[in-house]
Automatic annotation (TrEMBL):
It holds the Pfam family ABC_tran. The keyword Ribosomal protein does not apply. This is Amino acid ABC transporter ATP-binding protein. Residues 20-264 form the ABC transporter domain. SMART domains: AAA. It comes from the Bacteria.
Length: 268
């Protein structure tokens, strides 16, 4: 038996080792039906790679997982906890802002655009949330931030401002910043799409090390080599549905659907 749920949360027992469970998720923007019944699970320590054409709903799905978007139907669980809602009398009621913020702290997100604070140095960017949100003292937050910058290969750039860093370096600072909150899940939304080609490898290597350390990750990317090498699963989305999902090598070598074949032939 697990411990009773804290006030305001809703827990249900999941399958062994499941960290993320997405059940029948729909999302409308007005009349626009963007997610059309998504089911997906990600196990603890897994790297789930998500691919699909522009507009297929990949970013929307990531944004639903940390409740940056409200879902129109379905349920999302992270670590057995219903995200964004509590269930009462068979209906879902949106959680209070404070509860949503608490859930989000467990989920790190890295965007295509790095969104660093331009007036803060690399180390200050990484320290910011632990100090402001978690109330850590500045000295210990700085020490940890320097360790994280070292981990992403930027110990010599700690006192640089974002404008003094390359795009790849900024993205690695953004990864360190997300890790500073000790998330149990990391979401990456096309983290290398805005980078010059020669800077992509360093960012992918940091993500690869993170995966090897056991972090659970959902990664939207067109880097098929990364999917093949690092992904535990590869999911192809199109038109707001999961068209197919499986072992990355199998999906890449032997796609089952015409739409997957067509997409892969363009990105391979
Ligand atoms: P992807 O990341 O796969 O390119 P998105 O999730 O960004 O796809 O978008 C899926 C669809 O939802 C697109 O048609 C897009 O125009 C639409 N969309 C995304 N965000 C919004 C929004 N905030 N308001 C209205 N429509 C949106
Ligand atoms: Mg997107």
């Amino acid at each position: 038996m697990s411990a009773p749920a804290p006030e305001g949360t809703h827990r249900i027992p999941s399958g062994a080792g499941e960290l993320v469970r997405i059940e029948g998720v729909h999302k409308y923007y007005g009349q626009h039906h963007v997610l059309r019944g998504i089911d997906m699970t990600v196990r603890q320590g897994e790297v789930a790679v998500l691919i699909g054409p522009s507009g297929s709903g990949k970013s929307t799905l990531l944004r639903c997982i940390n409740h940056l978007e409200t879902i129109s139907a379905g349920r999302i669980f992270v670590d057995d906890e219903l995200i964004g809602y509590r269930e009462h009398g068979g209906r879902l009621h949106e959680l209070r802002v404070k509860e949503i913020a608490r859930q989000r702290r467990n989920i790190g997100m890295v965007f295509q655009r790095f969104n660093l604070f331009g007036h803060k140095t690399a180390v200050e960017n990484v320290m910011e949330a632990p100090v402001q949100v978690k109330g850590h003292d500045r000295a210990s937050a700085r020490k940890r931030a320097l360790e994280l910058l070292d981990r992403v290969g930027l110990s010599d750039r700690a006192n640089h401002y974002p404008a003094q860093l390359s795009g790849g370096q900024q993205q690695r600072v953004a990864i360190a910043r997300a890790l500073a909150m000790d998330p149990e899940l990391m979401l990456f939304d096309e983290p290398t799409s805005a980078l010059d080609p020669e800077l992509v490898g360093d960012v992918l290597n940091v993500m690869k090390d993170l995966a090897a350390s056991g972090m659970t990750m959902i990664v939207v990317t067109h880097e098929i080599g990364f999917a093949r090498e690092v992904g535990d699963t590869l999911t192809f989305m199109d038109g707001g549905v999961v068209v197919e999902s499986g072992n990355p090598r199998d999906v890449i070598a032997n796609p089952q659907h015409e739409r997957t074949k067509g997409f892969l032939s363009k990105v391979l």
